[in-house]
Inverse folding.
């Protein structure tokens, strides 16, 4: 079964709706300046008691930025240079790669840190994430083959294109932020439902 991560959750109503429609994970942005940013206090309000069996992923630049967010996983972009400090952080880890071209595949091949999954997102010159743009999925196929790791496919996914993405890449998990929003940080519950329904329908066609 393909897992679904709904990212950029900023309020309890959206978290509950996503969980009710069958999301496996909820993403919370702890990167300042994102329109989807949530403070540690806000994270506590929304996610201290998550819906049963739904994992919480906090999105950070460096692993230690997650120290005040009691999440299950961290999704991080850069390892800190202070490995001692980073090791004190006990979250399970998802390493994010922003897919630009074949040079990103070299980075992925060289990456050997222990992580639960690689999240592959679109490279954007101004935005770290949540850009709403797809990338060349052939790169994701190659990244999956080279790394041998579980893949979370992100970047511009929508209820309309997610089945094509699954067919092309066959990732373990898909991630969406802007494709299920009415405005940045505000989820459109009908789109969340349609996205998860499209994933479950694709899964059902495989069996
Ligand atoms: O979503 C953000 O605002 C964001 C800002 C800074 C770093 C990461 C961010 N999002 C991380 C995600 O995992 C998004 O879900 C991913 O980039 C896909 O976004 P979208 O293309 O909008 O579906």
């Amino acid at each position: 079964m393909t897992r679904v991560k709904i990212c950029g959750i900023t309020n309890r109503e959206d978290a509950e709706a996503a969980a009710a429609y069958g999301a496996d994970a909820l993403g919370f942005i702890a990167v300042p300046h994102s329109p989807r940013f949530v403070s540690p206090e806000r994270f506590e309000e929304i996610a201290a008691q998550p819906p049963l069996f739904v994992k919480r992923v906090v999105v950070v630049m460096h692993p230690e930025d997650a120290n005040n967010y009691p999440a299950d996983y961290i999704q991080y972009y850069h390892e800190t240079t202070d490995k001692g400090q980073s090791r004190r952080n006990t979250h399970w880890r998802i390493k994010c790669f922003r897919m630009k071209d074949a040079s990103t595949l070299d980075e992925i091949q060289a990456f050997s840190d222990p992580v639960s999954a690689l999240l592959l997102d679109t490279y954007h010159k101004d935005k770290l994430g949540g850009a709403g743009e797809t990338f060349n999925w052939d790169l994701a196929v190659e990244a999956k083959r080279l790394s041998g790791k579980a893949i979370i496919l992100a970047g511009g996914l929508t209820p309309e294109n997610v089945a094509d993405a699954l067919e092309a890449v066959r990732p373990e998990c898909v991630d969406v932020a802007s494709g299920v929003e009415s405005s940045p940080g505000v989820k459109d519950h009908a789109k969340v439902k349609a996205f998860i329904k499209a994933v479950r329908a694709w899964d059902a066609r495989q069996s």
In short: The chain has one domain: 3-206. Residues 7-8, 27, 29, 31, 34, 36, 59, 121, 128-132, 154-157, 175-179 surround LARABZUK (CB under 6 Å). Residues 30 and 95 are 15 Å apart (CA to CA). The mean pLDDT is 95.
